[in-house]
Design brief:
Blueprint (H helix, E strand, L loop, with lengths): L2 H5 L5 H24 L6 H8 L3 H7 L11 H13 L7 H13 L7 H11 L2 H26 L6 H12 L10 H19 L4
Helix pairs in contact: 2-3, 5-6, 5-8, 6-10, 8-9, 9-10
Length: 201
């Protein structure tokens, strides 16, 4: 049995059905948004595409923008787990480097659908604003997790700065053929600076 399976027992039938409905809604929404534009597609149309009510849709996605970022909560959970559940003896930066290279580098970077997704977000003010708020939430949560694990106050400025640059590092390599190398070098730079202010953390 894998460690993941041990921590997260298999979902029951009801949970699987809910997860499938959520995924179907997100997939239908993104398809329609890419075909016709975010502002030209209504909530009822998305619900109809999956044959569910708008009430059901809002149980899964409280706002329309959330349909585009359906993995938001899972991404944040993985990010925080990288810090909190890292192996004994592994530094915070080493754990975050590993997380970035595993989950955030190369994922869809050369895929046409990913490029279309990025264009959709960048060209839609409501999605750009939502993405920025989401990003700030991740940044704040990560800063608090780093502070917690290093034993400093939650509003520590060094932790806030580290969280910001850790999240930005993979974005600087987007679309580059040598993305892994670029991100690794960015983390080398971050690690030298972090070790200077928080040695051994």
């Amino acid at each position: 049995m894998s460690e993941t399976t041990a921590k997260h027992p298999p979902m029951g039938r009801r949970e699987r059905k809910k997860a499938a409905t959520r995924q179907s809604l997100a997939d239908a929404a993104l398809r329609l948004f890419l075909e016709r534009g975010y502002d030209q597609v209504g909530i009822r149309e998305i619900a109809d595409a999956v044959d569910v009510s708008t009430t059901t849709l809002f149980k899964h996605f409280p706002v329309k923008e959330a349909l585009v970022f359906d993995e938001d909560a899972d991404q944040e959970a993985r990010l925080l787990a990288a810090v909190r559940d890292r192996p004994q003896g592994q530094s915070v930066l080493a754990a975050l480097r590993e997380h970035a290279l595993r989950y955030r580098v190369g994922t869809g970077a050369n895929d046409a659908n990913f490029a279309a997704f990025v264009e959709l977000v960048e060209s839609t003010p409501a999605l750009r604003e939502y993405a920025q708020r989401m990003w700030l939430r991740h940044e704040t949560a990560l800063a608090h997790a780093i502070a917690e694990t290093t034993g400093v106050p939650a509003d520590d400025p060094d932790c806030a700065a580290l969280a910001h640059f850790v999240l930005e590092a993979p974005r600087t390599a987007r679309g580059r053929a040598d993305d892994h190398e670029r991100v690794a070098r960015a983390f080398d730079l971050l690690e030298r600076g972090w070790n200077a202010v928080s040695p051994g953390a």
